[in-house]
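Reference record:
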Amino acid sequence: MSVLENWQQWKSFLGDKVIHAQEGGMEKGKMSEVAFQIGDYLAKNVDPKNEQERVLADLWSVADTEEQHMIANLMIRLTGHSSAH
């Protein structure tokens, strides 16, 4: 099973990456830009594998660039927060 097929595994995977980036000293702005680029790539190239990813893809598709950056930042906060528990 791909990490993309299970929402909890996907959040955990992203959370681990956020923690590693923070521990590695990546600045918040850089992390935000990388998250935006990943979100944009996924939205354009990867078919959502579960309902949560479908909602994110649908939101991304109707959002303007500023809103897409907000979604990316929210995913950083969501995954960083959920991996700490």
User: Anything to note?
Assistant: The longest helix spans residues 65-83.
